[in-house]
Design a protein that fits this description.
The chain is mainly alpha-helical. Helices cover about 65% and strands about 0% of the residues. Helix 2 packs antiparallel against helix 3. The protein is elongated.
């Protein structure tokens, strides 16, 4: 995240821990709530969505 901030790709106000939570939450849900397997594609998708949210401008 530090490098992304330095490159201007991520707002420095973005909470890195929250980005990680956003990436892991769908996988956690599949594994422990829905009792479904997690595929590599689903893992990539969750990471991509979290990364896209990290690049979204932070309001206020």
């Amino acid at each position: 995240m530090t490098r992304a901030i330095a490159r201007g790709e991520v707002d420095p106000r973005v909470d890195a821990a929250e980005v990680i939570r956003l990436a892991v939450a769908p996988l956690f849900h599949r594994l422990f709530i829905a009792h479904e397997p997690v595929t590599a594609e689903q893992t990539r998708r969750a990471a991509d969505v979290a990364a896209a949210l990290a690049r979204t401008p932070v309001g206020n």
